[in-house]
Amino acid sequence: MALFRINRYLGGEEDATEDRSQALLERLREQARARQLKKQQQVLLPSDELKQKKTGNELHQKLKHSGFDSENEYQREAKKRKRGHSGEGSCGEGEKKLRKNHQVSSDSEKPLAGADSGLAGEAANGYIPAKKKKNENGKKSSLSQKKIEADLDENNRQQENKSNLKRDKAKRKKERDISTEVETNGAEIAEKDRSEEVKGNQSTKEKVCIPTLNEKATLPPSSSLVLGGSDRRAVQKVQPILPQWLAQPKLVHKRIKENLVPIQDVAGIHPKLLKKLQMNGIESFFPVQGEVIPAILENASSGFLVGRGGYQPSDICVSAPTGSGKTLSFVIPVVQALLERVVCQVRALAVLPTKELAQQVSKVFNIYTDGTGLKVVLVTGQKSFGKEQETLVQRTVMGYCSLADIIVATPGRLVDHIDQTPGFSLRQLRFLIIDEADRMIDDMHQNWLHQVVKAVFRAEEDSGTNMLFQRTEPGPVTAASTCCPQIPLQKLLFSATLTRNPEKLQQLGLYQPRLFTSVYSEKRAVTAGTETEQDAEKKYTLPEGLSQYYVPCNLNSKPLFLLYFMLRMKFTRVLCFTNSKQTSHRLFLLIRAFGGVNVAEFSSWLTPSERQRTLKEFEQGKIQLLISTDATARGIDIKGVKCVINYDAPQFIRTYIHRVGRTARAGKVGLAFTMLLKVQERKFLQMLRDAGTPDLEKQLVKSEYLKPLLPQYEEALSKLQKTVKDERAQKRA
Ligand SMILES: Nc1ncnc2c1ncn2[C@@H]1O[C@H](COP(=O)(O)OP(=O)(O)OP(=O)(O)O)[C@@H](O)[C@H]1O
């Protein structure tokens, strides 16, 4: 150990201290030999190996055979030395570890064993134990030894600081290269050592610090060191550390049919609602409903004005496949919680990204509030602003009063009403439902959530003494915060592709959230009511009844493939997605020009009423093929869609999940085809694999099936050209 210190010392001021260091070196070598002998007597081979390394030139020859040049081990040993001259005990321990590590990392154990026995033989050459030698040298020697050691310690520290950066860098590089360089380095060291021996003691540093020597051989001059380097390394996947609620969610069965829960088995559902469910043909709840409905009802068991036991209820996040029945899992408990309300106030607000979705959800609310006295108002901008205001509030001699118990809205229009509708108040809001929550988080730049929360906790003139229930934003639970009863605001989030990114979810300001998810590996057993680990690799779940294929094609043959599916395969109720309005429109014109298929298009180019009509006709079966942008990709529940065709491959996995989720809904079966150009194949399939979705089957279409379509197709193309020209002219006019 001391020898090493000297070496380091010499490394710093080699020329100036040459004589002194030689003398010291000699003395310490003797000590080392003595220790070696002692060790030898204890037959501790691993210690010998290290000591031989430290002892100097003659031992390098043997070390090279053992392949001992791991920078790691060297650094560890150096650290020990730095910690102090702690004696034989700790050194031996370190050496044992070293030996153990070395045995693991060494390419072959046999040469090492050979080297060990050789070292043992060297050590047996009459070395004197260190303690004895110390005594012999007397007090003078021991004093000077202490002084030297103190000097060395100081110099060590200085040297250590100087070379720290360089060594760290070299260490990293060394670790990378160590497995391949062991043998080469050994040979290099041996060669160097032989020449160093001739030079004498002044180069002891280089001989002892084997890794340093190797670094010198491999690294560029320090002035041209490139931090980080440009070596290619396999990048290790970083596994995020999730908060407990995300890491250990409540798992929900994804197989719908096998896990139906009879509606009577879910405790606490109001008889009125049970009757309504049955009237709507619902005898059993889907798994997500079986889990989430009781969880929300439990929080509202003491009425909607206070949380259970007076506490703020947990916010609820639900991630379940498309078509698994998420809508009913919030509609039923929210309607039930509000059944007993006396005064009409806005107590539930559902926010959705599009008008069509909001309309769809408001329809479901209407079904279950019908005959209960609860009022549902749709706020999406489909009516004029003034008309919407009239549906929301009424001015009376007593002031404004609400006309809505439940509002279903799109975020933009909602914020307009918060800002501009006199008497519109959210101060009694109990449930905030965010459907398609991941999409709504993406839209968070609109700041709509902040506006809603501000409106909920807004202090008004009449607040304070005459308010039975005060409202303050939830914070840490303290004695003071629990002394006044609060109307809790509970957030309920739903999506088939809910993000697990805590940073994104944090934007929603969730309160002690609970996660219900169907994202788990098939191998893991899920028993209702138990909480099992999620599969970190699996990000999304697709409906069980969905069969997915991809169709390799080229750009020109794409429309022919679509015609093949419609005319030869005789698919009906096909929803076909493109990536733009333009493509949707042209494809629609082309298929229409070809004839034989009842086709329509759906995009933001259509007016809201046209869109509504189109969806209705598609659901009724009047339209065989609906060519759409992603406007219908999310949430839209069209009964009887048998097949989804991705005419353009979606760019994002979430888009894919939602698009193909328009079929195979409510436990039914469905087909999904994705047309892939050669250049898209690898990347697209990898994207699906990365998301943990099952591999797509390749579906080839024989060219002989397409050939008969060609003449008519050529004709359709020329018709299309003409139509496009006419449309352009019309636009210009
Ligand atoms: N318990 C049930 N029994 C029978 N049908 C049901 C039941 N629950 C929901 N459904 C039907 O299943 C279909 C899909 O439901 P819903 O639209 O709520 O799915 P979702 O999970 O919200 O899908 P997405 O993620 O695509 O929005 C609807 O047509 C709905 O009427």
UniProtKB/TrEMBL annotation:
<dbReference type="GO" id="GO:0003724">
    <property type="term" value="F:RNA helicase activity"/>
</dbReference>
<keyword id="KW-0547">Nucleotide-binding</keyword>
<dbReference type="GO" id="GO:0003723">
    <property type="term" value="F:RNA binding"/>
</dbReference>
<keyword id="KW-0694">RNA-binding</keyword>
<comment type="function">
    <text>RNA helicase.</text>
</comment>
<keyword id="KW-0067">ATP-binding</keyword>
<dbReference type="GO" id="GO:0016787">
    <property type="term" value="F:hydrolase activity"/>
</dbReference>
<dbReference type="InterPro" id="IPR014001">
    <property type="entry name" value="Helicase_ATP-bd"/>
</dbReference>
<keyword id="KW-0378">Hydrolase</keyword>
<dbReference type="InterPro" id="IPR011545">
    <property type="entry name" value="DEAD/DEAH_box_helicase_dom"/>
</dbReference>
<dbReference type="Pfam" id="PF00270">
    <property type="entry name" value="DEAD"/>
</dbReference>
<feature type="region of interest" description="Disordered">
    <location>
        <begin position="38"/>
        <end position="206"/>
    </location>
</feature>
<dbReference type="InterPro" id="IPR001650">
    <property type="entry name" value="Helicase_C-like"/>
</dbReference>
<dbReference type="InterPro" id="IPR027417">
    <property type="entry name" value="P-loop_NTPase"/>
</dbReference>
<protein>
    <recommendedName>
        <fullName>ATP-dependent RNA helicase</fullName>
        <ecNumber>3.6.4.13</ecNumber>
    </recommendedName>
</protein>
<comment type="similarity">
    <text>Belongs to the DEAD box helicase family. DDX51/DBP6 subfamily.</text>
</comment>
<comment type="function">
    <text>ATP-binding RNA helicase involved in the biogenesis of 60S ribosomal subunits.</text>
</comment>
<feature type="compositionally biased region" description="Basic and acidic residues">
    <location>
        <begin position="48"/>
        <end position="61"/>
    </location>
</feature>
<dbReference type="Pfam" id="PF00271">
    <property type="entry name" value="Helicase_C"/>
</dbReference>
<dbReference type="InterPro" id="IPR000629">
    <property type="entry name" value="RNA-helicase_DEAD-box_CS"/>
</dbReference>
<feature type="compositionally biased region" description="Basic and acidic residues">
    <location>
        <begin position="146"/>
        <end position="167"/>
    </location>
</feature>
<keyword id="KW-0347">Helicase</keyword>
<feature type="compositionally biased region" description="Basic and acidic residues">
    <location>
        <begin position="189"/>
        <end position="206"/>
    </location>
</feature>
<dbReference type="GO" id="GO:0005524">
    <property type="term" value="F:ATP binding"/>
</dbReference>
